[in-house]
From TrEMBL:
The lineage of its organism: Eukaryota, Viridiplantae, Streptophyta, Embryophyta, Tracheophyta. GO terms for molecular function: DNA binding. It is found in: Nucleus. This is TF-B3 domain-containing protein. SUPFAM superfamilies: DNA-binding pseudobarrel domain (SSF101936). It comes from Brassica campestris (Field mustard).
Amino acid sequence: MAGTDIYPDAPFDPKSERNIFITLTESEIGLSNTITMSKELLEANVFIYLPSKDVTGLIQHNEAILMDVFDYDTKITTTHIIRKDGDKDFKFHGWNTVFQGKHFRTGDTIVFWWDVFHLRLNFKQFMFSFV
């Protein structure tokens, strides 16, 4: 859901230290259903906003959590399943719904930032690949 006049969508702040930049790999494009983020990035920029029981379950017990992800350009929110993938990465399952209608390519960079009012992860395309 898009923001309201009282609680507008949190815009991208290029000066924020909490931005997460992901350069898309070949495995994350096309028919992929997942995107990968490192544990360090999520711990520093997202997990601090989540309930501690969710973070503990995710990290220590390999439990999945649901997270809303908001496409800032299209104003569409989708819900993704986050699961631990090994010791240092997490996979966001459900990315095929985001890729529909988009023309991402390997090497494109997308940026994520936390929206404290809507309790979700916002994202937008940051840089296009010229390859």
